[in-house]
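User: For my dataset I need records formatted as: sequence, then structure tokens, nothing else. Please produce one.
Assistant:
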Amino acid sequence: MQGNFQDQVLAQLYVLDFDDRAYHIAEQLVGSIDDDGYLRRELSAIVDDLAFSQNIQTTAEELEKVLLAIQTLDPPGIGARSLQECLLIQLDRKEQKRESVVTARRILKNHFDEFSKKHYEKIAKDLNLDSDGIKKAIDEILKLNPRPGNTASQGQRSIEHIIPDFLISNNDGVLELTLNARNAPEMKISRDYREMLDHYSKDKKNSKANKEAIQFVKQKLDSAKWFIDALKQRQHTLYHTMHTIMEYQYEYFLEGDIRKLKKMVLRDIAEKINMDISTVSRVANSKYVQTHFGTFLLKSFFSEGLSTESGEEVSSKEVKQILTDCIGAENKRKPLTDDALTKILNEKGYNIARRTVAKYREMLDIPVARLRKEL
């Protein structure tokens, strides 16, 4: 993905009217931009790179001039060295006479720390803004893209499709599992090699060349047989592992109801199929299954468990879904704290501690209540 993203930026360099030296420096800078669109390497380190790889003697100051030119290219915010710089670059492209844009720039330039912590009341007080003025400025900032590299690669991502390794179909309440054809290719040994071996074997000449030819063909046939057997064993391992997962989570795969997803760890499946945990892990981390309710990476079905008041074990995925739903429906002016979320889950019958709620919230990439607050 990164190569495609860099190519899009490199293709725009012609508009900057660089000479050869500046162009080579720009190429090095663009090559150092990460997938999010940021230049996170120190300019002094890139100075060393240019000296060693291209024998170009330069300075951080010269690199900065070239970088500032790159930052005028699309997508807006490209080549920024920090989130603050990224957002400011994007604001500079907006209509500068608009009051909300002017205020937004003042906030990002002089009150970025308070903004990142959502201390909007303090910002409003410092800038002597009323509630409408601070809201419009904050809205202006929230429309900006904190990861400009994603914008440039969206077209590439939109044409990427996951090809499932397994297919589960629900036929009137009976689940059927099949391997995708790409994981179960029909392979057989070429008849040409068998005929070749028969030809040399029937040849009555007992020459050294004839013996070597027979030995060569036999080795090729043995290698082909070994490869086909290994492939069949791999297919068996894949099918056996997925079939065991399907049986373990049968109720879930029937309906796709996450509440039916039972606690399941790698050891549970490894013990049932009598294989190493590492084998199950490799399958779970790289294979996808297509169901009537979606396509999923196998590892998404594995999770630790919790118990309810009745002693029933449930998957942590079920708890995470409840957390997601609660936070999605919360009043953003008064977002739910971890204590409040813990209380909700306890009232629903889930025995869970506040620290576990905080851990699950972080795993879901959901910030703390203070950072979810909106005006």
